[in-house]
Write a structure and sequence with these properties.
The structure is a homodimer. Chain A has nine helices and 14 strands. Chain A is an alpha+beta fold and about 350 residues long. The first copy, chain A, has a seven-stranded mixed beta sheet with strand order 9-11-8-12-10-13-14, sandwiched between helices. Chain A has a five-stranded mixed beta sheet with strand order 1-2-7-5-6. In chain A, a hairpin with a 5-residue loop joins strand 13 and strand 14. In chain A, helix 3 runs parallel beside helix 6. The radius of gyration of chain A is 20 Å and the shape is globular. The first copy, chain A, starts with 5 loop residues before the first helix and ends in a 13-residue tail after the last strand. At the A-B interface, helix 2, strand 1, strand 2, strand 5 and helix 4 of A face helix 2, strand 1, strand 2, strand 5 and helix 4 of B.
Chain lengths: ~350, ~350
């Protein structure tokens, strides 16, 4: 925070509470947003992207409408019911592309490996990457592997980047939600976060619940075919859960939202685990569902199309976009509470 | 190595010497090649890329000829004379695209950060990323940041992915070198590796030498304009140095090479450091030079074009491609020695 530092001139307000990186800076909550908007983007200077923060960047190369997205995976443990770090890396990137109406055409995978990791662990992860990519219909075209000494990394990190080709029509954007839009959710929430946490800590809930990690690009293609430009915004509620995704869209679009609590599909094991652990399922990470903001005239068509698709069989309508104000939840008893962006970390290393 | 494992059927020969990941698996030498060809690529199965291992993958999306490349950076220290991990991440990816005759159009940057890292360190790295990207004329369009607990990563790792647009004409390829091709080197070798090692260990050589990290795409464009499809193969000799790059091209192209030792430009501080440390400059990493395999009829034109360019001012002719056999060096005294691929790690965490 040296005032002579040119970056400080662009970003004068010091980041709150700390001069060091906290776990919460990677949480997907308010600290993450602060880190991005007040440090990382200003530091990039003239090389920084413009516009709202999106799951994937859209760009035109010649005649081609493309999208690109990168995600780092540091999940602990590496393997858990329903998935592993390799499947997560593929699905997360495929899904980020899909949220901008792009179908994946190529993936790259980078590994940072700790010296001493059993080769078989690396083989299992790479096999999972290959299987997930093949199932999603996308080749892994390039990659890189670096090894650091014992203790310089915790086993294995995976970074995946996806190149996608945009479907025709305008891309859904975080800034696209409009008052009156119907909010649709493709399936149950909380499964991924509870599964990873329970497996890591040996809590036992992992016997009854599994990660929802799955690719959503085919579901998105179905939705866009059903409604075209009636789908205004899409987001997969990963880190920070549904509540953070809703707040990000609300902020980028300059709108409010009203969510019906009883419409939220929370599986019983997730509810039980959250009650015991003092977590709110609305903030628990998902890796296989999406939230869509759809023009009211198209909502029923899109919902029907989603339910006809295996990845959207549990789709529900959860609320509406309002003119402004916060994201509020109407509880089963009729009261209203604000569903705010969490400051920091509810669950570290969940993806 | 469970024989029931489907991956084992594709990759029956166990990796030599170890069932665990060694530092050498990330060195760019023979262990790296083994890891890629005998574990990572077979594990990908149907999602694996075909063809030789290249710096960047070339792919067509509709009418667009694109290239994509990913690199993970784990260099220790983060800052050193001539550069830092941020500049390295930009230049390395820009250069990998350039080796396939692609000009960069977009970069993504992912950070894996250790909890407790001073925010100012992250800001300095992000500022360096932005400055290097701006100087290379490419925007950083997207990214991701994950934070892991203290001790779960060594400060900061950076993964960069670049999307490039292919220049017209066939892409140079690792398999493209032909007997009779002239081998050109764009500038001095060994500076990056010696600088990083000396800075890390406090050896003092870093007072007289600096990393050569720089973008090479404009030099490549100049070379291709001068010779078009006379440039058969290009490689930037990073991890594993010039010797590894020559061996990789020789293996992919099914050719041999004869290199003139006295033609190799080794700056005096690099020579002194290598003598003291028992290193061979031909195996020390570079981040700002390239080696080109050029049809004999085009070699003089390309060399002249390189020398007229700031990034190629020190370009020299270092040898010729032969019909087969190993990569050999003819020493100043007229003897010949084989310049083999190193098995493992000469210098860990150099990039």
């Amino acid at each position: 925070m040296n005032p002579a530092d040119p970056a400080a001139a662009v970003c004068p307000a010091p980041l709150p509470e700390t001069e060091r990186v906290l776990l919460g800076h990677g949480s997907g909550g308010r600290l993450s947003a602060d880190l991005i908007t007040r440090l990382l983007v200003p530091a990039l200077g003239a090389a920084a992207p413009g516009g709202p923060l999106e799951d994937a960047a859209v760009l035109a190369v010649g005649e081609c409408e493309l999208a690109i997205s990168t995600d780092a995976y540091v999940v602990d443990p590496l393997f858990f019911p329903g998935g592993d770090i390799g499947a997560l890396a593929v699905h997360g990137t495929v899904n980020d592309l899909a949220m901008r109406a792009a179908m994946p055409v190529a993936l790259s995978i980078a590994y940072v490996v700790e010296e001493g990791l059993p080769l078989d662990v690396l083989r299992r992860v790479a096999t999972a990457v290959g299987a997930a990519a093949h199932a999603a219909g996308v080749p892994v075209v390039t990659g890189d592997t670096k090894v650091v000494g014992r203790g310089a990394a915790d086993r294995l990190f995976v970074v995946s980047t996806g190149l996608g080709r945009r479907l025709p029509g305008p891309a859904p954007t975080a800034a696209g939600a409009r008052p009156g839009d119907v909010i649709l959710l493709s399936g149950p929430i909380g499964c991924h976060g509870v599964t990873v946490l329970s497996t890591r800590e040996g809590l036992g809930f992992e016997a009854d619940v599994a990660s929802d990690t799955r690719p959503l690009h085919r579901l998105v293609a179905t939705m866009l075919t059903a409604a075209g430009d009636g789908v205004h915004a899409l987001r997969d509620p990963t880190r920070g859960g549904l509540a953070s995704a809703l707040n990000e869209i609300a902020a980028a679009s300059g709108v409010g939202m009203e969510i019906e609590e009883r419409a939220l599909p929370v599986p019983e094991p997730v509810r039980a685990a959250c009650e015991l652990l003092g977590l709110d399922p609305a903030y628990v990470a998902n890796e296989g569902c999406l939230v869509a903001f759809v023009a009211p005239g198209h909502a029923d068509t899109v919902l029907t199309a989603m339910r006809a698709h295996p990845e959207g069989a549990g789709a529900v309508r959860i609320g509406v976009v309002t003119d402004g104000g916060p994201v509020v939840v109407r509880t089963a008893m009729g009261s209203r509470r604000v569903l705010d962006l969490l400051a920091g970390e509810q669950l570290p290393r969940i993806c």
